[in-house]
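Tutorial, part two.
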Amino acid sequence: MSVVVNSKKKQRKEVRDNQQDSEMTFKPREPRHEGMTVNYVGYIDTEAIEDRKITNIARKHGIIGAKVVLFEKLITTGQYAPWHNIPPVVVKLKNGNYKLIAGDHRLQAHRGKGKTKIWVAVVEFDTHKTELIYQSIENRPDLSYVETPRTPADIVNSAKHILISDGYGKDLKSPTDKQLWAVIDELLITTKEAVKADIHELLRESVGTATIDVKGYSSATANQKAAKIHGNSSNHMLVEKYIDTHGVSRDTDKRLLWKILAEKFGCSDPSLLFYVYAYWSRMDGEKIPMARTKKREYWEKLEGQIVDFAKIIQSPDYVSPSLIPLPQLDGEDVE
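Running the prediction step on this input gives:
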């Protein structure tokens, strides 16, 4: 009997040893962002992080008290596991102290609970603009177990500071509409946070623009307007958004024509009439008339290509492509 007990004790000890070894070799999570270099991840003194009036310009209205309280509860109950999540981000200053880039709520929670150390990532940024972009996208709702997501005001505030860092703003030179959209795209806005078109309008109001102010359709308003124009017509209709001037818009038109041709084929009616209600977004107002003209020209060119392709497929010499799957990778699951 004692042999069995000793054997079980030995097994439990081996399990504990394996767990400890696993914890010791566990690699903590690091932030990742183009233009950012992580020097190291570990504990630093909370007092070594300099106090600033505004530590994170990505927060339009500052720190949210309720979020700090949630972090404090995690710390008190021992549920705060810093190495399992993206840590606060700091930059080391020349005086030996640190500048907080992201993690205001966690820092305040640590100080509020009397903690003298905080787990952080010490990083460097290639440009000030890169730092501003990271400050904003770090607050996306999918990156933290206590969500402190960006509000539309936060996003606009970040975009405005990024434009200022590039030399644009109300008291500086005015950005073009294209430059506004470029900044909005860099901030990786999710549908859960805001509608990009709404952010664009707010940003235009905040910093102005050098291009003609033309109010664009959102997806909802475009569909509403098209439905109103189409009325009770029994003819088929589609609503399409375009973001270019020269006529080509990735695969949008190819998918559109394929959909129309499939419907005509299904009904065995080549004369089946379709109305396509088109609207343009992310474009300077003065370019829209040219875009409309170019779109008609591109459709005609695309239809001609489809005819040419059909002739190739109908040729008696046509050979279908051969499928050659690559060899299975080691460890790849086989369905």
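Residues 1-5, 15-24 have pLDDT under 50 and may be disordered. In part three we will examine how such features are distributed along the chain.
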